[in-house]
Amino acid sequence: MDDPWGPWQEPMWRIRGAFKGQRAGGGLSMVEVLWTCPVGGGRTPVEAAESLTTDEPVTNPLGGAGGPTQGARPMSSHATIIAGFGGQGLLFAGQVLAQAANRDGLEVSWMPSYGPEMRGGTASCTVIVADTPIGSPIVDVSDAVIALNPPSMAKFEPSLAPGGLLVLDTTLVEAEPRRTDIEVVALPCTAIARSAGNDRLVSVVALGALVARRPFVEVASVRAALADLTGAHHADLLEADLAAFEAGYGVAQGQLATEPPLVSEPLSATRG
User: What is the DSSP letter of 56?
Assistant: First the structure.
């Protein structure tokens, strides 16, 4: 006889692991279990109970395949983490990237990191861009990381997938990356932003480098997104924003001519 608890073994194991992390003082833990409820999925309670003993994945109301052993992220997606000090425009750069993807007709998730870590520590935001609905804004493995200070590189470099992209601000980050299986774009983002007119546009410079190496959004869409988010309230800053983006894009493209990237696909497959 089949074990009716079989499909729930993995969620139970992950919930148990979250509690262990809490007891060990590991900080906040979050477990998200996506499953069809009887009402949302159009099933009666009896049909929902019977589905637990089948091997077929149920339909996830957020889109894509659900089931306890399947990942929540879509099959084609690109996850970018932008990290640095508070005040470097991290969240703004993430919003620009999300707005550009939205203009391109893609699915988007933008999740900022708030809290005391933003005061002198590592602040960040995660942007997921996909061509199918996104099941969760949480990522364990990222496709690209923009690290604008040393703590950010130390924290997020390990999360990069093999062949992933690491964009570094060499004005502040002096250490060399430890990974040898990733692509690295190192440029003085802060110095470039200062020459473009505002050293607070460091994240926009790095965004230009990202799009140059990973063109999963259109350059024209990024320019339009900058106009949408900056021009509406601060038209006087739009010229500096565009100059910072173009400068970062140009430097990364120039490096590309002498050092081809490891990965050419605009979207990567889900990894677990």
Answer: S
* String of DSSP letters for 118-150: GTTS-EEEEEEEESS--S-S--SSEEEEEE-SH
| H/E segment holding residue 101 | helix 90-103
Distance CA 145, CA 78 (A): 11
Structure confidence at residue 48 as a pLDDT band (50, 70, 90): low
Contacts for 133 with CB less than 8 Å, ≥ 6 apart: 62, 63, 64, 74, 107
Q: What is the DSSP letter of 63?
A: S
- CB of 266 closer than 8 Å to CB of 78: yes
Q: Which of 131, 62, 126, 122 is nearest to 97 (CA)?
A: 126
Q: What is the CATH architecture of 76-265?
A: 3-Layer(aba) Sandwich (3.40)
Looking at residue 176, its amino acid is E
Judge contact between 167 and 145, C-beta under 8 A.
Answer: yes
Q: Do residues 142 and 164 make contact, with C-beta atoms less than 8 angstroms apart?
A: yes
User: Are residues 167 and 156 in contact, defined by beta-carbon separation less than 8 angstroms?
Assistant: no
Predicted local distance difference test score (pLDDT) of residue 51: 62
Give the model confidence (pLDDT) of 157-213 as tens digits: 999 999 999 999 998 898 888 999 999 999 999 999 888 778 789 999 999 999 999
For residue 168, the SS3 value is strand
Break the chain into its structural domains and give their ranges: 1-72, 76-265
What percentage of the chain has pLDDT greater than the value 70? 68
pLDDT of residue 254: 86
